[in-house]
Amino acid sequence: MSLEALRNRLPEYAKDLKLNLGSLAAETVLTPQQLAGTFVASALAARNAEVTAAIVAEFAPRLSPEALNAAKAAAAIMGMNNVYYRFTHLVGGDYPTMPAKLRMNVMARPGVEKVDFELWSLAVSAINGCGMCMEAHEKVVRQAGLSKEQVQAAVRIAAVVHAVAAVLDGEAALGNVAPASVAQAA
Question: In the chain, N or C terminus with fewer CB closer than 10 Å?
Answer without folding.
Answer: C
